[in-house]
Amino acid sequence: MDLLIKGGTIVTAKESFAADVAVKDGKIVAIGKDLPFEAEKVVDASGRLVLPGALDVHTHMAMPFGGTVSADSYLSGTRAAACGGVTTIFDYPVQHKGQTILGLCGEKNDVLEKEACVDYAFHCCITDLNGGAILDEMEEAVKKGITSFKCFLVYKKENMMVDDATLTRLLLRAKELGAMINVHAENPDLIDLYTEKFLKEGKTSAWYHYLSRPEFVEAEADKRAVHWASHLETPIYIVHMADKEGLEACIKAKEEGHKVYVETCPQYLEFTCDVYKREDGRNFICSPPMKGKESQDALWKALKAGYIDTVATDHCPFQSYEKDWGKDDFTKVPNGCAGVENLYPYMLDAANSGKLSFERVVELCSTNPAKIFGCENKGSIAIGKDADIVIYDKDKDFTISVSNMHSDYDHTIWEGKELHGYPVQTYLRGKLVYDNGEYVGNPGDGKYIKRKAAK
After folding, report:
1. Which residues pair with 27 in a beta bridge?
2. Residue 349 main-chain phi, psi, to 5 deg
3. Cis peptide preceding 288, ω within 30 of 0
4. pLDDT tens digits, residue range 291-307?
5. Which of 348, 234, 230, 250 has its CA nearest to residue 307?
């Protein structure tokens, strides 16, 4: 054997149990008590949890946006992922008029092959059908393992928004191919209306970012997306759910038997819109923004009840000087916050404090993302799966600071957040890549994950 992890408590989406894990050639080959194997490397996990690596299915590395590029390159962003127990990231390349899916993702893959510190996959954002050519190309993309595509119902002025007809075409085409359409749901016309009003009135602080995109502005678009998907009988995945009313529409559709999948993010679980009243409120500007306490409570309730399927990050950090562009005008702030290194530790802390079970956290952060997006070899500690393994110390106290993160940004919205329990090791296909605060892997360790379409 290459690796034997002994004496830990394995956590799956369904149960926890004491057992050893044996790894050979990057795969889990045996699970059981007191396994009688010799191994090149033996790890004592006594008193610790042995978890599957998390999948962060919503990241924006090296993304051009808001007049700049997000602060994490593919190297630094995936390095940070490894150090937080995330062993697979999904990135969102944005296609524009004239670009092809495979051409764009191929360019990204050329970089990731050299820089990726964890495994990776793509959701491709479709902004223009190129006269229908994109609908044809989707079939070839699915064959290449790109089985999910994103639509923005917002960012009209940035030429990224799709109209309802384009959304419908994409939903129906994805259904034919066994693919998934992911949707960023907000109403652009209302956002523009409110933004214009506030700027005219000289109301330019970060607080008006929230007021220009309040709960019902997101909810309307959530409802519209779910309405089309339900009536067209197509699956749909709503990204970064943040509002109560839209969440309720998704829950209703789920209860009626429709394939509506819901993602939320740690920032919506931790912060409310009150952060935008802070002196540094611009640092928290992301879209959709954090919402009120009622929406936050609804998210936690849905997490516990099983109505939210995944937790991901929408990781898209910018440097503080770039955020400062909007110090006196919220519309000039690049939208996005850090999160990829904080996802698993934050959610596991919630389990450690009794808000959720550890099994539920594994389900939300690992098993469900792998299942929904066709990563057959990911998402669980099970024989035959990739040996993407995180060893977690429930007793290790940790305070998040920009100084102990592994990204390239110069500030974090998570500064000072205290966690009880923290990952101490991360293994990517059996290779140790993170060890007690230090990244010990190599750029290029990560591999492209070719995903399977739904049957």
Report:
1. 24, 386
2. -60, -40
3. yes
4. 999 999 999 999 999 99
5. 250
